[in-house]
Amino acid sequence: MATDWVTESSDSLLHFADLILSSVPVRHHRAALLDKVQDQMRQYARLEAEAEQAALALSEVKDEAVSSISEGSEVNIEELAERVKCLTDRYMQDKLAAMGDLNAHDKCLRLARMVDAATPAAAGADEELVVTGMQTATRDPWSKQEIRRPYRNRRCDHVYDHESLERLLGEKACSIKCPYMGCTNKRPLTWDDMMEDPVAKRAC
Ligand SMILES: [Zn+2]
Questions:
Q1: Distance CA 48, CA 164 (A)
Q2: pLDDT beneath 50, residues of the chain
Protein backbone atom coordinates (compact mmCIF):
# COMPACT_ATOMS: atom_id res chain seq x y z
CA MET A 1 0.00 0.00 0.00
CA ALA A 2 1.09 3.56 -0.66
CA THR A 3 1.04 4.47 3.02
CA ASP A 4 3.46 1.61 3.85
CA TRP A 5 5.91 3.01 1.37
CA VAL A 6 5.55 6.47 2.92
CA THR A 7 6.00 5.04 6.42
CA GLU A 8 9.21 3.25 5.41
CA SER A 9 10.59 6.27 3.58
CA SER A 10 9.83 8.67 6.39
CA ASP A 11 11.41 6.25 8.87
CA SER A 12 14.61 6.19 6.84
CA LEU A 13 14.47 9.97 6.72
CA LEU A 14 14.45 10.00 10.54
CA HIS A 15 17.53 7.76 10.50
CA PHE A 16 19.16 10.06 8.01
CA ALA A 17 18.47 13.05 10.27
CA ASP A 18 19.99 11.11 13.15
CA LEU A 19 23.08 10.46 11.05
CA ILE A 20 23.39 14.15 10.17
CA LEU A 21 23.02 15.15 13.82
CA SER A 22 25.61 12.66 14.99
CA SER A 23 28.20 13.05 12.25
CA VAL A 24 27.95 16.47 10.61
CA PRO A 25 29.58 19.21 12.70
CA VAL A 26 27.33 22.15 13.58
CA ARG A 27 29.36 24.62 11.60
CA HIS A 28 29.16 22.68 8.34
CA HIS A 29 26.11 22.52 6.11
CA ARG A 30 24.19 20.83 8.85
CA ALA A 31 21.38 23.38 9.12
CA ALA A 32 20.83 23.35 5.35
CA LEU A 33 20.79 19.54 5.30
CA LEU A 34 18.34 19.42 8.19
CA ASP A 35 16.13 21.98 6.44
CA LYS A 36 15.98 19.72 3.41
CA VAL A 37 15.17 16.70 5.56
CA GLN A 38 12.36 18.64 7.24
CA ASP A 39 10.98 19.74 3.89
CA GLN A 40 11.02 16.18 2.65
CA MET A 41 9.30 15.01 5.82
CA ARG A 42 6.48 17.50 5.23
CA GLN A 43 6.09 16.08 1.72
CA TYR A 44 5.83 12.57 3.12
CA ALA A 45 3.27 13.78 5.64
CA ARG A 46 1.26 15.18 2.75
CA LEU A 47 1.59 11.99 0.67
CA GLU A 48 0.49 9.89 3.59
CA ALA A 49 -2.54 12.10 4.20
CA GLU A 50 -3.37 12.00 0.49
CA ALA A 51 -3.14 8.21 0.31
CA GLU A 52 -5.39 7.87 3.34
CA GLN A 53 -7.99 10.28 1.97
CA ALA A 54 -7.94 8.60 -1.45
CA ALA A 55 -8.53 5.20 0.17
CA LEU A 56 -11.44 6.68 2.13
CA ALA A 57 -12.97 8.28 -0.98
CA LEU A 58 -12.50 5.07 -2.97
CA SER A 59 -14.27 2.90 -0.43
CA GLU A 60 -17.13 5.37 -0.18
CA VAL A 61 -17.63 5.52 -3.95
CA LYS A 62 -17.30 1.74 -4.18
CA ASP A 63 -20.11 1.29 -1.65
CA GLU A 64 -22.28 3.69 -3.66
CA ALA A 65 -21.50 1.83 -6.89
CA VAL A 66 -22.29 -1.53 -5.33
CA SER A 67 -25.70 -0.33 -4.15
CA SER A 68 -26.46 1.25 -7.57
CA ILE A 69 -25.58 -2.02 -9.29
CA SER A 70 -27.70 -4.03 -6.90
CA GLU A 71 -30.61 -1.68 -7.67
CA GLY A 72 -30.06 -2.40 -11.35
CA SER A 73 -28.76 1.10 -12.32
CA GLU A 74 -26.09 1.76 -14.95
CA VAL A 75 -22.64 2.56 -13.58
CA ASN A 76 -20.31 4.91 -15.43
CA ILE A 77 -16.69 4.18 -14.56
CA GLU A 78 -15.43 7.59 -15.68
CA GLU A 79 -17.99 9.35 -13.53
CA LEU A 80 -17.00 7.20 -10.60
CA ALA A 81 -13.30 7.97 -11.07
CA GLU A 82 -14.08 11.68 -11.25
CA ARG A 83 -16.13 11.41 -8.07
CA VAL A 84 -13.25 9.67 -6.25
CA LYS A 85 -10.98 12.52 -7.29
CA CYS A 86 -13.38 15.21 -6.10
CA LEU A 87 -14.00 13.46 -2.81
CA THR A 88 -10.27 12.96 -2.25
CA ASP A 89 -9.67 16.68 -2.80
CA ARG A 90 -12.43 17.58 -0.40
CA TYR A 91 -11.26 15.16 2.30
CA MET A 92 -7.71 16.39 1.80
CA GLN A 93 -8.78 19.99 2.41
CA ASP A 94 -10.58 18.96 5.60
CA LYS A 95 -7.59 16.89 6.66
CA LEU A 96 -5.13 19.73 6.14
CA ALA A 97 -7.43 22.11 7.99
CA ALA A 98 -7.64 19.64 10.88
CA MET A 99 -3.86 19.18 10.98
CA GLY A 100 -3.47 22.95 10.94
CA ASP A 101 -0.10 22.59 9.40
CA LEU A 102 1.94 19.68 8.06
CA ASN A 103 4.46 20.41 10.81
CA ALA A 104 1.90 19.01 13.23
CA HIS A 105 2.29 15.55 11.67
CA ASP A 106 3.79 13.21 14.27
CA LYS A 107 6.94 12.42 12.30
CA CYS A 108 7.58 16.08 11.54
CA LEU A 109 7.23 16.72 15.27
CA ARG A 110 9.58 13.84 16.11
CA LEU A 111 12.13 15.21 13.68
CA ALA A 112 11.84 18.73 15.12
CA ARG A 113 12.31 17.35 18.64
CA MET A 114 15.38 15.35 17.55
CA VAL A 115 16.92 18.45 16.03
CA ASP A 116 16.12 20.57 19.08
CA ALA A 117 17.46 17.96 21.48
CA ALA A 118 20.74 17.59 19.59
CA THR A 119 21.43 21.30 19.34
CA PRO A 120 22.67 22.31 22.79
CA ALA A 121 24.98 19.29 23.14
CA ALA A 122 26.50 19.89 19.73
CA ALA A 123 26.92 23.62 20.37
CA GLY A 124 29.44 22.92 23.13
CA ALA A 125 29.07 21.65 26.67
CA ASP A 126 29.77 24.94 28.42
CA GLU A 127 27.30 26.94 26.39
CA GLU A 128 23.97 27.62 27.96
CA LEU A 129 21.00 25.88 26.51
CA VAL A 130 19.26 27.85 23.79
CA VAL A 131 15.62 27.04 24.29
CA THR A 132 13.40 26.98 21.25
CA GLY A 133 9.67 27.45 20.99
CA MET A 134 7.65 29.78 23.14
CA GLN A 135 10.21 29.93 25.89
CA THR A 136 12.88 32.49 26.44
CA ALA A 137 16.46 32.10 25.39
CA THR A 138 18.92 33.86 27.62
CA ARG A 139 21.71 33.98 25.07
CA ASP A 140 21.74 35.46 21.65
CA PRO A 141 22.01 32.73 18.98
CA TRP A 142 24.72 34.58 17.02
CA SER A 143 26.91 36.25 19.60
CA LYS A 144 26.29 33.56 22.28
CA GLN A 145 26.30 36.45 24.75
CA GLU A 146 23.67 37.20 27.36
CA ILE A 147 20.72 38.94 25.69
CA ARG A 148 20.52 42.54 26.88
CA ARG A 149 17.77 43.94 24.73
CA PRO A 150 15.49 41.08 23.65
CA TYR A 151 13.65 41.31 20.38
CA ARG A 152 11.11 38.65 19.55
CA ASN A 153 10.38 37.44 16.05
CA ARG A 154 6.58 37.50 15.61
CA ARG A 155 6.75 34.70 13.06
CA CYS A 156 8.38 32.06 15.25
CA ASP A 157 8.63 33.59 18.74
CA HIS A 158 12.39 33.26 18.85
CA VAL A 159 14.33 35.88 20.73
CA TYR A 160 17.54 37.66 19.69
CA ASP A 161 19.61 40.47 21.07
CA HIS A 162 19.04 43.86 19.51
CA GLU A 163 22.76 44.33 19.05
CA SER A 164 23.08 41.25 16.84
CA LEU A 165 20.04 42.23 14.81
CA GLU A 166 21.46 45.69 14.36
CA ARG A 167 24.74 44.24 13.17
CA LEU A 168 23.13 41.69 10.82
CA LEU A 169 20.15 43.56 9.48
CA GLY A 170 21.60 47.03 9.47
CA GLU A 171 19.24 49.21 7.55
CA LYS A 172 18.96 47.21 4.38
CA ALA A 173 17.02 44.04 3.70
CA CYS A 174 19.02 40.84 3.87
CA SER A 175 18.40 37.15 3.54
CA ILE A 176 19.42 35.97 7.01
CA LYS A 177 16.97 33.45 8.44
CA CYS A 178 16.13 32.56 12.01
CA PRO A 179 19.20 30.66 13.28
CA TYR A 180 17.42 28.53 15.86
CA MET A 181 17.71 24.84 15.00
CA GLY A 182 14.44 23.28 14.04
CA CYS A 183 12.76 26.65 13.54
CA THR A 184 10.10 26.28 10.87
CA ASN A 185 10.11 29.96 9.98
CA LYS A 186 11.97 30.14 6.69
CA ARG A 187 11.38 33.81 5.99
CA PRO A 188 14.34 36.15 5.95
CA LEU A 189 14.51 38.26 9.09
CA THR A 190 13.15 41.80 8.80
CA TRP A 191 12.75 44.60 11.31
CA ASP A 192 9.01 44.52 10.62
CA ASP A 193 8.79 41.07 12.19
CA MET A 194 10.68 42.06 15.33
CA MET A 195 9.13 43.40 18.47
CA GLU A 196 10.88 44.50 21.61
CA ASP A 197 10.05 42.02 24.34
CA PRO A 198 9.95 43.37 27.90
CA VAL A 199 8.80 39.98 29.26
CA ALA A 200 11.87 38.23 27.87
CA LYS A 201 13.95 41.03 29.34
CA ARG A 202 12.62 40.40 32.82
CA ALA A 203 13.18 36.67 32.43
CA CYS A 204 16.81 37.16 31.41
ZN1 LIG B 1 12.81 31.06 14.76
A1: 41
A2: 121-135, 203-204
What are the structural domains, with CATH classification, of the chain? 2-109 (no CATH), 128-203 (3.30.40.10)
Distance CA 185, CA 204 (A): 24
21 alpha carbon – ligand 1 mean position (Å): 19
The reply to whether the predicted model has a pTM over 0.70 is no
pLDDT of residue 161: 92
DSSP-derived 3-state class of residue 135: coil
Q: In the beta sheet, which residues pair with residue 146? A: 139
- List Cβ neighbours of 195 (8 Å cut-off, separation of 6 or more): 151, 152, 154
CA of 152 to the centre of ligand 1 (A): 9
Q: What is the CA(1)–ligand 1 centre distance, in A?
A: 37
Strands (E), the chain: 150-153, 159-161, 194-196
